[in-house]
């Protein structure tokens, strides 16, 4: 979970982002997202710059002036305003500023998909791509190997997804390759799924079952979980025959395991005692 100070600093930027998302079209939002992610890459490459912009020992005006001088003529006014809000925040360590800049770029891409009515599709496509990667050891190694140049791994992602997934899905999958927020590839994809759901004011429920549920069963489960948690719940179902029967559901840190596999494990543990 993010520290409270980080959430507070990002909340101010999120408010400006939401105002912007209501005022400009999806194409412009994607352009701004690209500019923000360009700056994120710069911060990742330049640790001294990252430290200077995040140093709360320096006056806020000095940090924002540094940012404006650096980006003058290179990004649009909307991008500069968003990034100025970010730099004005209080960041305990420079990596928090970098992570927040990446998060801002992601949220802009998700806002663009929301404007186009594609947000739920992007969420599902990212989840399915994560399943494909997790289920294919060779693919996971090829995409997650930091020794392989990111350009080659990006080409592989595009060959797998372009024409089959939304452009935003492809863009976010590419971002996951470099470790969104310092995470592994699979953890990055999971976090991106959850951010897409959060943009729809939904929580994600990861469901593991031996047999694929029917649409009616999925609706019933989603409704029950929504009542329990007081908000919309987006189901992400994974079929694993090895659980034998029953169902395992995880929402955040909450885990409900009613699988036969779990009951057998408990029984074996009991006999061993």
TrEMBL record:
The record, for InterPro entries, names: ATPase_OSCP/d_CS, ATPase_OSCP/dsu
Matching PANTHER family, A to Z? Answer: ATP SYNTHASE DELTA CHAIN (PTHR11910)
Q: According to its record, how does it sit in the membrane?
A: Peripheral membrane protein
Summarize the protein's role.
Answer: F(1)F(0) ATP synthase produces ATP from ADP in the presence of a proton or sodium gradient. F-type ATPases consist of two structural domains, F(1) containing the extramembraneous catalytic core and F(0) containing the membrane proton channel, linked together by a central stalk and a peripheral stalk. During catalysis, ATP synthesis in the catalytic domain of F(1) is coupled via a rotary mechanism of the central stalk subunits to proton translocation. This protein is part of the stalk that links CF(0) to CF(1). It either transmits conformational changes from CF(0) to CF(1) or is implicated in proton conduction.
UniProt cross-references to NCBIfam families, sorted A to Z: PRK13430.1 (NF009967)
Superkingdom of the source species: Bacteria
Q: Return the protein name.
A: ATP synthase subunit delta
User: According to its UniProt record, where is this protein located?
Assistant: Cell membrane; Membrane
Question: Mainly resides where?
Answer: membrane
Species this protein is from? Planosporangium thailandense
Q: Pfam families from the entry? A: OSCP
Q: Give the family this protein belongs to, as stated in its UniProt record.
A: Belongs to the ATPase delta chain family.
Recite the UniProt keywords alphabetically: ATP synthesis, Cell membrane, CF(1), Hydrogen ion transport, Ion transport, Membrane, Transport
């Amino acid at each position: 979970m993010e520290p409270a100070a980080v959430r507070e600093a990002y909340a101010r930027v999120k408010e400006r982002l939401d105002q912007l998302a209501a005022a400009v079209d999806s194409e412009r939002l994607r352009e701004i997202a690209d500019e923000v992610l360009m700056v994120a890459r710069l911060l990742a490459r330049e640790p001294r710059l990252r430290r200077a912009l995040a140093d709360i020992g320096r006056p806020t005006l000095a940090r924002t002036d540094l940012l404006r001088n650096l980006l003058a003529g290179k990004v649009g006014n909307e991008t500069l305003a968003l990034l100025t809000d970010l730099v004005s925040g209080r960041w305990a360590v420079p990596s928090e500023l970098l992570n927040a800049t990446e998060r801002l770029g992601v949220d802009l891409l998700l806002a663009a998909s929301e404007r186009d009515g594609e947000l739920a599709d992007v969420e599902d496509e990212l989840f399915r791509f994560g399943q494909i990667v997790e289920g294919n050891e060779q693919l996971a190694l090829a995409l997650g190997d930091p020794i392989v140049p990111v350009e080659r791994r990006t080409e592989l992602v595009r060959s797998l997804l372009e024409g089959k997934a939304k452009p935003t899905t492809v863009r976010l999958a590419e971002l996951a390759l470099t470790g969104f927020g310092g995470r592994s590839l699979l953890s990055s994809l999971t976090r991106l799924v959850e951010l897409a759901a959060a943009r729809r004011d939904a929580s994600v429920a990861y469901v593991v079952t031996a047999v694929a549920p029917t649409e009616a069963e999925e609706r019933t489960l989603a409704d029950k979980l929504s009542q329990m948690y007081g908000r919309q719940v987006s189901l992400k179902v994974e079929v694993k025959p090895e659980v034998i029967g029953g169902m395992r559901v995880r929402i955040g840190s909450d885990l409900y395991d009613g699988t036969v596999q779990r009951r057998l494990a408990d029984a074996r543990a009991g006999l061993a005692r």
